[in-house]
Amino acid sequence: MADVIIDITCPVCENVFKKKARELKDGAVIKCPKCGEQTTIRGTMFTDMIKNLEKGGNA
After folding, report:
1. SS (H, E, C) the chain
2. What pLDDT, on the 0 to 100 scale, is given for residue 59?
3. Is the pTM of this model over 0.90?
4. Cα–Cα distance between 21 and 19 in angstroms, integer?
5. Sign of CA dihedral 49, 51, 53, 57
6. What digits encode the pLDDT tens for the residues 11-47?
7. In sequence order, which residues have a C-beta less than 8 Å from that of residue 51 and are 6 or more positions away?
8. Which residue among 6, 7, 15, 42 is buried most deeply as judged by most CB within 10 Å?
9. Within 13 Å and on the Cβ side, how many CA atoms surround 56?
């Protein structure tokens, strides 16, 4: 299965960058490549989506 890519918009500089949904686990810290702002992912929305897709469901 191909990786699901999510567009992330930085809350500070509004730069849009991409991350693999599989990497966006609860507690993961992502860093904006433009301004360096760090954002912590809360919840399991992205990993739940991947699990559902692997079972043949919809995103």
Report:
1. CCCCEEEEECCCCCCEEEEEHHHCCCCCEEECCCCCCEEECCCCHHHHHHHHHHCCCCC
2. 61
3. no
4. 6
5. negative
6. 999 999 999 999 999 999 999 999 999 999 999 998 8
7. none
8. 6
9. 0
